[in-house]
Fold this protein.
Amino acid sequence: MTCRPPFRAPPSPTTATALPEALGWIDEGLEAIRRDGLERPRRVRTGRQGRRVELDGRSLVNFGSNDYLGYAGDVRLTKAASRAACAEGFGAGASPLVSGHSSTHAALEAALAQLLGTGDALLFPSGFAANAATIAALVGPGDIVVSDERNHASIIDGCRLSRADVAVFPHRDMAAAERLLKGSAARRKLVVTDSLFSMDGTMAPLDDLAEVSARHGAMLLVDEAHATGVFGARGSGLIEETGTADGVHVRVGTLSKALGAAGGFVAGHPRLVDWLRHSARAWVFSTAHPPAVAGAALRAVELLGEEPQRRTALLDRATAFRDRLRAAGLDLGDAASQIVPVIVGSAERAVALAARLADAGLFVPAIRPPSVPAGGSLVRASLAWHHTDDDLDRLLDALARSLA
């Protein structure tokens, strides 16, 4: 498949003008961000996602992408997107309820429901929208949400939007979660968690969460964003891996990470999904995402069944790499997945370490508050199927030298 050269963005305006008086507070806020070491540069990527990435003109080994199975730049997804766009146009034109739900969207929802072994599934414009809309559709004033302290921002915002009482328990602390549920007389109770936590690579105790939720009559919502495609015999995620499907009522995921496409989804009992079609505002009032994107995601779901060796090789390599890093004395916390954090403490140290790694030809982003707790800043290496043994040797050597 022949692709044209990439589009070139026009240069950014260079003339600085004063902010309007009503926005004058922004300068002080931005200065505080810089002073605290939390300024985040905007990088421009050229070319496809893959083992290497060109950022701001520098070619680096790419440990900064969530493209765990290497599908984001795969030409097979590009061709599937092109076929769907040719058949149904690029834009969906309207919300799914009006006229935006295409045959490709319907096929993808059916494929996701089959992959997860649920009765039905519902597509959202993003994983963020899926969490935010679903939580707010399940609970409201007079209800309670019990949430892990390290849940993703989309879960946190969904809890806020719901206007339910929100009780946060320490990371993976089941005794604390049970106390919160036991002490509540709320109308409805909802427990929410990531299955694989994106910043520190730890896993939720799904079996314990399912038992605690069942004892207290609570709904259990699990976000599988970083586990979908990577774990489980079929690649459906950690719920499959841990055998906890019967205890999980709402399954949220994304198409933008291991599946290499874009959008989010919610899966579960058909009547649950029907309820969300009527009450999840980010689905009801958003234009459906493009059929071409759904076509690419549908092809990725098919590839999960055709190429199980990708996730097997990834997890084996990740286990061996974590063992080597720990043997070298690096602090990985409780990481147990393809997400490998190296914890260094301050935001300044994380930024400096990421810069040294980039000088060594490796893109490993610095992760700082509010993504992690204060004092817990880190660099995060996201391992992917396409990384080679030489890539991992280089990363280990560069980390050891930089932290010596």
